[in-house]
């Protein structure tokens, strides 16, 4: 099995656009054709394809051609990497906030000159 690495900066940049986030949300319900994904958006197909290219470059989706139809699939692996990174950040901030809380409780009522 090939172990892939995911660039969190590229993933976050890809998810910074609301159109791309909506595509990801839709693919969370299951695979879809490009035309089905593009239907809710009022943009030309070449513009929509640029969004898909960005998502595919970030490895958030992959596509497969079935006959004349291109089907898009969600790749959940980059989300696991992001989830791990966010969990570390959350843990760090919880520790810092707990330390601040302890400090404030210890110094409550003390006067500083």
From TrEMBL:
Residue spans crossing the bilayer: none
InterPro entries on file: ArsR-like_HTH, HTH_ArsR_DNA-bd_dom, WH-like_DNA-bd_sf, WH_DNA-bd_sf
All residue ranges annotated as the HTH arsR-type domain in the record: 1-96
Region forming the signal peptide: none
Gene3D superfamilies attached to this UniProt entry: Winged helix-like DNA-binding domain superfamily/Winged helix DNA-binding domain
Superkingdom in the source lineage: Bacteria
Family annotation (CDD domains): HTH_ARSR (cd00090)
Alphabetized NCBIfam families for the sequence: HTH_metalloreg
Name under which the protein is recorded: Transcriptional regulator
Source organism: Leptospira vanthielii
């Amino acid at each position: 099995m090939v172990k892939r690495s995911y660039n969190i900066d590229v993933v976050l940049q890809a998810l910074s656009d609301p159109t791309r986030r909506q595509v990801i949300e839709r693919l969370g319900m299951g695979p879809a054709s490009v035309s089905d994904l593009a239907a809710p958006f009022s943009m030309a197909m070449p513009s929509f394809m640029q969004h898909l290219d960005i998502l595919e470059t970030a490895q958030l989706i992959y596509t497969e051609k079935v006959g004349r139809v291109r089907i898009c699939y969600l790749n959940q692996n980059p989300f696991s990497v992001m989830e791990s990174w966010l969990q570390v950040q959350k843990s760090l901030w919880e520790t810092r906030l707990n330390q601040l809380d302890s400090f404030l409780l210890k110094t409550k009522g003390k006067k500083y000159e």
